[in-house]
TrEMBL record:
Organism of this sequence: Haematococcus lacustris (Green alga)
Gene Ontology biological-process annotations: transcription initiation at RNA polymerase II promoter
TFIIF beta subunit HTH domain sequence ranges: 80-140
Gene Ontology MF: a single term: DNA binding
Positions with biased composition (Basic and acidic residues): 60-80
A Pfam family annotated for this UniProt entry: TFIIF_beta
Family note: Belongs to the TFIIF beta subunit family.
PANTHER family recorded: GENERAL TRANSCRIPTION FACTOR IIF SUBUNIT 2 (PTHR10445)
Protein localization: Nucleus
Protein's name according to its UniProt entry: TFIIF beta subunit HTH domain-containing protein
Alphabetical UniProt keywords: DNA-binding, Nucleus, Transcription, Transcription regulation
Gene Ontology cellular-component annotations: transcription factor TFIIF complex
SUPFAM superfamilies, A to Z: Winged helix' DNA-binding domain (SSF46785)
Length: 144
């Protein structure tokens, strides 16, 4: 027996069994499966205390004064270009090619300043085994 059929006027006739099935599904869907639970006064205070402790720990970790100090410590001051050139020549005497990050760590100079001085005395390798590293230009190499 079909669940739904059309009558003489084209209206849909629905089986009583199908109606009961839909009604039970709807009633089941309307039931709240996650009831709201009211907290007792003590439990609410404990949760607030826990939340405040977490907030205190988080603020201890990220105190603005400490962040400013750390930022100041990480700042690098630009050296005189001639002094920096001398320091770079000493580094290139130790090792023929350097990655930029290592040069910056050795000289403790800001990136843009170091790069501008480097471009005058060194060339960056674009390909090959030393790709991305800097080495002295030919006019600065000893014995050329």
């Amino acid at each position: 027996m079909p669940i739904a059929a059309l009558d003489d006027k084209g209206q849909v006739l629905v089986d009583e069994q199908y109606r009961a099935l839909n009604r039970s599904r709807t009633e089941k869907a309307e039931v709240n499966t996650h009831p709201i639970q009211a907290l007792e006064h003590n439990r609410r205070q404990n949760l607030e205390l826990l939340r405040s402790k977490r907030a205190a720990v988080a603020t201890e970790r990220l105190k603005p004064e400490d962040a400013k100090k750390r930022k100041e410590e990480r700042k690098r001051t630009s050296a005189d270009p001639k002094v920096l050139e001398t320091e770079l020549f000493k580094l290139f005497a130790r090792q023929p090619s350097w990655p930029f990050a290592q040069l910056q760590a050795e000289t403790q100079q800001p990136g843009p300043h170091l790069k501008s001085v480097l471009e005058t005395i060194a060339a960056q390798h674009k390909a090959g085994p030393n790709r991305g590293q800097w080495s002295l230009k030919k006019e600065y190499l000893v014995g050329s």
